[in-house]
Amino acid sequence: MLGKVIYHEGNRLMIEFEEEINPEFLKLLARDKENLTDVKLIDNEPKSAKQNALAHALIKDISKHQELPLHKAKQMMKDLYKEGQGIEFSHAEASMTEMNTWVEFLIEHVLSEGISLPKRYSYLLEYEKFFYYCCKYRRCCICGKPHAQIHHVKAVGKRNRNKVDHRLFPFASLCWVHHNIAHTIGENQLLNDFVITPVYLDKETLIKIGIMSNAQIISFDQKYEDEELFKKVLKE
Fold it and tell me: What Å distances lie between residue 125 and 73, 106, 176, CA to CA?
């Protein structure tokens, strides 16, 4: 059922639907509870040519890796997307937001499966998620080599790394060759020359790649809670 937002304030939306809503049907759906609804806000901006080009380039690379005809690789990815997202995807009908989600899904698949790219697509570098997934799956964000090192963009220095909350530092995933280049030409030069966007990693990824343990994260969170409580007591 399609509707139009006619009023918005804070966490409240007033929606006018194209059709009248039968109150008895609402009562039936509620089943003596509150009526709940799943709302999807529609992006009126259609997909861009850049998004479309990148999506098709990645699908082509997937088809080569899987040794599948292009149309079968495309359908395979659509099936995987539906399985994970619970919705179907259509290139022809996609909005800019929907296309963005689709492209990020393709990027993660390429990196998690170790699919080689013939080159660093310029449009790919506009996606922060590319650099995030490079860290998550330890792929060099410059050359794509596996088993990359997770490089602190802001140096931790001589501090004990077990006593550092790595969630507060941005990272880039680099193979040992490009890691050494970073130390040779300087970090900023490397970021500019290779168009790298450093990213912050969530706790799940930091645990997955062995940068932090769950116990360390819990310890830091407890420390922050204690500090906030201390500040609150001081104010009182």
Answer: 23, 14, 21
Domain holding 143, by residue range, is 131-236
Q: How many domains does the chain have?
A: 1
How many other C-beta atoms lie within 10 A of the C-beta of residue 111? 24
- Predicted TM-score of the model (pTM): 0.81
213 belongs to a structural domain: yes
Tell whether 36 is covered by a domain.
Answer: no
**Start-to-end CA span in the chain (Å):** 52
- Which secondary-structure segment (H or E) carries 103? helix 96-112
Which tokens sit at 127?
A: 């996606």
**Residue 195 falls within a domain, yes or no?**
yes
Query: Along the 236 residues of the chain, how does pLDDT read in single tens digits?
Result: 677 787 788 888 888 877 788 888 888 888 888 888 877 776 667 889 999 999 999 999 999 999 999 999 999 999 999 999 999 999 998 999 999 999 999 999 999 999 999 988 989 999 999 999 999 999 999 999 999 999 888 765 555 566 788 998 899 999 999 999 998 998 899 999 999 999 999 999 999 999 999 999 999 999 888 877 656 655 65
Does 48 fall in a domain?
no
Task: Give the whole-angstrom CA distance, residue 163 versus residue 212.
Answer: 10
- Using CA atoms, how far apart are residues 115 and 62, in angstroms rounded to an integer? 7
